[in-house]
Inverse folding.
């Protein structure tokens, strides 16, 4: 199991930017694909972005494509989510997740380790 801790959430206005970080500890980080998911009130947890362990492959939800960027620094055991042009509908708790595979995925069931979540609130 790998332990994940998110940081960088907060309250911003529409059009602003935020960068979420996810620090990993415990078992091997660099051989795992990583992902970001989010949970908004009244909705199911949904996929946001994922990245392969070598950073060569990234996937994004259509709703964030062109605005969000996922990246990772394996030497720092950290994955990031840069969020630009934020919208009120991006308001959610954002979760970092790790997969027991180096291949990126959009499926929630493929990720076995989860962080505690970081609140992102975007006001209009």
């Amino acid at each position: 199991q790998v332990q994940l801790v998110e940081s960088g959430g907060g309250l911003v206005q529409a059009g602003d930017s935020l960068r979420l970080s996810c620090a990993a500890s415990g078992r091997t980080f660099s051989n795992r694909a990583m992902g970001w998911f989010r949970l908004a009130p009244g909705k199911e947890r949904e996929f946001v972005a994922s990245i392969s362990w070598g950073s060569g492959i990234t996937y994004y939800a259509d709703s964030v494509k062109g605005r969000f960027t996922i990246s990772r620094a394996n030497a720092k055991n950290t994955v990031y989510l840069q969020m630009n042009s934020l919208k009120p509908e991006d308001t959610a708790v954002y979760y970092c997740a790790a997969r027991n595979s180096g291949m990126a995925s959009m499926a929630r069931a493929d990720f076995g380790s989860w962080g505690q979540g970081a609140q992102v609130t975007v006001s209009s």
Summary: The chain has a mean pLDDT of 95. The CA atoms of residues 12 and 75 lie 30 Å apart. The first strand starts at residue 2 and ends at 7. The radius of gyration is 13 Å.
